[in-house]
C-alpha cells in the first residue's frame, strides 16, 4: 500500500514539472520549436495578434523567422477525422459519427501571410498547418509547394528541410522588431467580432501572453508610459513599450 502511495505522489510530481505542464496545455508545438531557440538563424515567436490589411485582427499561433524563410504555423486541436479541399472555405471534422464545419486553415494561413506581407514585405513564406497525433487527415490535395498539412511532430523536419540562405541576419532582426512593434495587445481592442477566424481559441487570454516565451505580461510603469514586460524576467527579456 505504502508503495502505491509513493508511486502516486511521484506521478503527481512529474505532472507538476514545467515541461510536462507545457506539453499538456497544448504547447506541443511550442515544445518542438524550442530547440530552434539556441540557433541564431531562427527567431521563434508565439501567439501573435496582428491587424489585417482590412482592419480586422488575426491570430498567428507560431511564427519562425529564419534566414531560410518565414514559417507560419497554424495548429489545430480538432480530434477525429479531418477532411477538406484547398479551395473550400470550410472543412469538416468527423467525430463519433457527427460532422462539424470549421473555417479552412488554408484560408486562415492566406490571411496570416497577407498580414505579414504588409508588415515585413514579400518573403519566402512557408505555411505549416498541423493537427494533433491520432487525428486522421484525409488526403487533402494542395497545389502550392510552400503549403504543408501534417501532424505536429513533423514540424521540425519540415523547417529543417529548408537550407538555402535567403534572408540576412540583419533583416531577421528587423522583421522581428517590426512584428513585435505591431502586436495588438490591448485587450479592449480585441473582441471576437474583429477577429478574422471565429474559432473557439482563447485568443483573449493569449493576447496578454509573452510572444517570446508564453509567460504572463505584467504592466508596469516605464519612464514615460505604461510598459508590459514578461513575468519570466530575467530568463526572458521581452518588453512592450506601448503599454
Ligand atoms: Zn517572455
TrEMBL record:
<dbReference type="InterPro" id="IPR013498">
    <property type="entry name" value="Topo_IA_Znf"/>
</dbReference>
<feature type="domain" description="NERD">
    <location>
        <begin position="21"/>
        <end position="139"/>
    </location>
</feature>
<dbReference type="Pfam" id="PF01396">
    <property type="entry name" value="Zn_ribbon_Top1"/>
</dbReference>
<dbReference type="InterPro" id="IPR011528">
    <property type="entry name" value="NERD"/>
</dbReference>
<protein>
    <recommendedName>
        <fullName>NERD domain-containing protein</fullName>
    </recommendedName>
</protein>
<dbReference type="Pfam" id="PF08378">
    <property type="entry name" value="NERD"/>
</dbReference>
